[in-house]
Design brief:
By secondary structure, this protein is α/β, with parallel strands linked by helices. About 40% of the residues lie in helices and about 10% in strands.
């Protein structure tokens, strides 16, 4: 076997900037059967709609035959369903403004390349999802972050100051509901102002929204896109969290005039989304299976969130602060400033519990006394055990 010296390759600038997600590396620990993983962002496998989806997949293949396995254009009935779904949420759009993607990360990658050249300025939250960092800083962009917090979410005054600064940004990204990793949601006033600022400063704003269907308490709010009168908000939605991750299917709402450009960019990546998956997902939606599935999933998530909150209260009261989620998959934990959760991680792994250090989500290498905890993919009993193990590691640092 020949061993290659990879240092001899001349890589592209983009490949040189990209770094593998810390989250993906930490998830490798989850294969240990003794490990309790609070690190992922997955729905529990036992609540995925296996039989219902199998039924829909079989129905599509029986109805459409071999054509269901061919290259096909975007599935019009699915685009029509999604346009109606978005209209019910207050977004004015037509099926022609719906563009099918392979999940939100695919949408982020497409829009990043639509608006950003390497060296351009992008605006993102100072703490945000690692996938957003990959399509901005990971492509060699200049990042101008703005403040965000687990109490109130994105600081709109700071965002406006960044929008008004020079060089003017070419793109911005916000997560409106059950923020990954902070768990916070934007208020109605924040959503309205975000749309206003995008129009005022002519900054395309990506609304990255995979989590809004996962609400288990509180009142739902319209997307930022619902307040977009000027066409500067680009909405991204996904079936990965509300139906099943392996589907890798999502959508974007875009101005009709950009459809050809987006189609061209998409073809340069992977041509198109699976025709079979689009048809099977539409069958699932058309049969009315989504509402009862979400009801069951969100009830389970709520019970698990409550189990995690109870465990935190039992073991971390007076030691840490944490968010109180109304939905989504995550709780953000903040420890005393002197505790570095990167340094703590090896001991936690020895204790057979894993989390994501908050610093993995920080643009400026901050938040090192924080961590993201997932509750959706862990049973209440395992959650209690995991937090007890974590508390033992933390308390040795106090």
């Amino acid at each position: 076997m020949v061993t290659l010296d990879t240092t001899t390759y001349v890589l592209s600038t983009e490949a040189s900037h990209l770094k593998r997600s810390v989250i993906r590396e930490l998830l490798a620990h989850a294969v240990d059967p003794q490990m309790i993983s609070l690190a992922g962002g997955l729905p529990a496998s036992e609540f995925l709609p296996l039989e219902a989806y199998r039924e829909c997949l079989n129905a599509v293949m029986k109805r459409d035959g071999a054509q269901s396995l061919q290259y096909r254009p975007q599935y019009t009935p699915l685009r029509e369903w999604l346009a109606d779904y978005m209209q019910q949420r207050g977004v004015k759009c037509t099926p022609q403004q719906i563009y099918i993607t392979n999940g939100n990360q695919n949408g982020l990658a497409i829009l990043s390349r639509l608006f950003l050249n390497p060296g351009d300025t992008a605006v993102i939250e100072a703490i945000t999802f690692t996938g957003i960092k990959l399509v901005t800083a990971g492509r060699g962009m200049i990042i101008n972050p703005f403040r965000t917090s687990h109490q109130s979410g994105a600081d709109m005054d700071d965002m406006e100051a960044v929008f008004a600064s020079e060089p003017r940004p070419r793109l911005a990204v916000l997560i409106p509901d059950f923020h990954n990793p902070l768990g916070v949601s934007l208020s109605l006033a924040q959503r309205q102002r975000a749309a206003h600022l995008a129009a005022k400063y002519h900054v395309p704003l990506i609304e990255d929204d995979p989590y809004s269907p996962l609400r288990f308490s509180g009142e739902p709010l319209p997307p930022i896109k619902a307040f977009d009168e000027a066409g500067y908000v680009f909405y991204l939605g996904s079936f990965s969290k509300m139906l099943a991750p392996a589907l890798r299917l999502g959508w974007m709402v875009v101005p009709e005039g950009l459809g050809a450009k987006i189609a061209g960019l998409r073809e340069s990546f992977d041509l198109e989304s699976s025709a079979l998956t689009q048809r099977a997902v539409h069958e699932f939606l058309a049969r009315g299976y989504l509402p009862p599935h979400l009801e069951q999933l969100n009830a389970a998530n709520q019970a698990r969130a409550q189990a995690l909150l109870a465990a935190l209260e039992a073991h971390f009261s007076g030691v840490a602060t944490w968010t109180q989620p109304e939905g989504g998959l995550f709780i953000w934990l903040e420890l005393p400033p002197h505790i570095n959760t990167w340094d703590l991680l090896p001991e936690a792994l020895d204790n057979k519990v894993v989390y994501i250090p908050g610093g993995a989500f920080s643009v400026n290498d901050g938040a090192n006394n924080t961590m993201r905890l997932n509750y959706s993919n862990v049973t209440p009993q395992k959650i209690a055990q995991g937090i007890e193990r974590l508390a033992k590691a933390v308390k040795r640092q106090l």
